[in-house]
Amino acid sequence: MGKILGIIGGGQLGMMLTEAAKKMPEQISKVIVLDPTDNCSASQVGAEQIVADYKDKNAIIELAKKSDIITYEIESGDSDVLKSVEEYAEINPSPETLKIIQDKFLQKSFLLQNNLPVPEFINVDSVLDLEKGLNKFGFPALLKSRRDAYDGRGNFKIDSTKQIFEAFNFFRQKNLMLEKFVPFKLEVSVIAARNTKGEIKTYPLVENIHENNILRLTIAPARVNKNIANIAEQIARTTMNVLRGAGVFGIEMFVTQNDQIIINEIAPRVHNSGHHTLQSTETSQFEQHLRAILGMDLGNTALNYPTIMYNILGPTNFEGKYKPIELVESNLFLKMYGKKISKPLRKLGHFNLVGKSGETIDQLLFKLDSLKGKMSVNPA
Ligand code: AMP
């Protein structure tokens, strides 16, 4: 008899988890998502939905009572509430792991204690703390909101003394931290999985290109030498080992000018830079996450084809309904998320360009360039 899976969040990640769950009927009989948007992405592919805010305590209790196992697609959930519903459902990754990760300061402190490489950082409670930190790190430095920040929305880059008050006031009383700026040459990530039995597997290192702080494309595999790929993988394994949570995690890292690897941040969930695995590997990150939280053996993570994942983002100057996007091209796999409304830089879908005909990354990038004109989002 399959289990009932509850997911906090029913956006694109919840949608792709639901689709993976549908292919495992023996293990998962039903998916229920908790999401504030009526007819959210996950509900469009067959998940039952509880319409409520992610932090609505009663809704989380209802979800837990209806589910055997709970996971999440967002890291901003209330870990104390999750802890309190463990009597009803198993929660993976555990509320303890979530609590460490969802606060960037606690996360970086934890990594540092475990001898993992992170940028220098300090906690900031006052303008005085900020001034002290800037004296230590120099300019530029990044003031970051410790919690509830994603897609770069919680960061303020401070370039000079003149910006100190502006930066501090920008966050209005939030808990903050200051981080030394890393002049990286590349951003990379490892999608890693750890199952409830402690087995760990990693996907090959990928390269991430951001625009406006939002992931624009992922190149799999990353264009780095083997040594860098091995070190990144080792860092990811150690991270998974010390964190002890079960599930798939996205571990974002910087490669510095002198080829050092530094962890930027960890997401305790399936990750945008792992979407290529829908076509490039035998086991997608979504199936892997389900395998991990159900205590099944983890699947094969080898990369079968070089692949580029490209995010389809809402244009910056428009909010409203948009025309359907259709892209027919050999070895191009388009996935739209069923979101009715486009908003500036909203993630509406993605596609994977897969090198199934023996193309190299350079050839795929060239192909991507020729496709860019065809995939803009236009008002309906
Ligand atoms: P975050 O939301 O903290 O992952 O940051 C979003 C983006 O800001 C990252 O993908 C980097 O491009 C940049 N960033 C974050 N932290 C640093 C840092 N310490 N040094 C340089 N760039 C950073």
**Cα gyration radius (Å):** 20 Å
Helix-and-strand structural type: alpha+beta
Bound ligand species = adenosine monophosphate
Mean pLDDT: 95
> Helical amount among residues, as a percent range?
25-40%
Could you tell me the number of beta strands?
A: 20
Structure description:
The termini are far apart. The chain has 380 residues and is an alpha+beta fold. Strands 10, 11, 12, 13, 14, 15, 16, 18 and 20 form a nine-stranded antiparallel sheet that branches. The protein is 28% helix and 29% strand. Helix 1 links the parallel strand 1 and strand 2. The protein is globular, with a radius of gyration of 20 Å. It has eleven helices and 20 strands. Bound molecules: adenosine monophosphate (AMP). Adenosine monophosphate binds next to strand 7 and strand 15.
Short description:
The chain is of the alpha+beta class and 380 residues long. Helix content is 28%, strand content 29%.
State the main characteristics.
single chain, alpha+beta, nine-stranded antiparallel beta sheet, 11 helices, 28% helix, globular
Q: Secondary structure elements and their pairing?
A:
Layout: E1 3-8, H1 12-22, E2 28-35, E3 48-51, H2 57-66, E4 69-72, H3 79-84, E5 90-91, H4 95-102, H5 104-113, E6 121-124, H6 127-137, E7 141-145, E8 155-158, H7 164-170, E9 176-180, E10 184-194, E11 200-202, E12 206-211, E13 214-220, H8 226-243, E14 247-256, E15 261-267, H9 277-280, H10 285-294, E16 307-313, E17 320-321, E18 332-336, E19 341-342, E20 347-354, H11 361-371
Parallel strand pairs: 1-2, 1-4, 2-3, 4-5
Antiparallel strand pairs: 6-9, 7-8, 7-9, 10-11, 10-12, 10-14, 12-13, 13-16, 14-15, 16-20, 17-19, 18-20
Helix pairs in contact: 1-10, 4-5
The protein binds adenosine monophosphate.
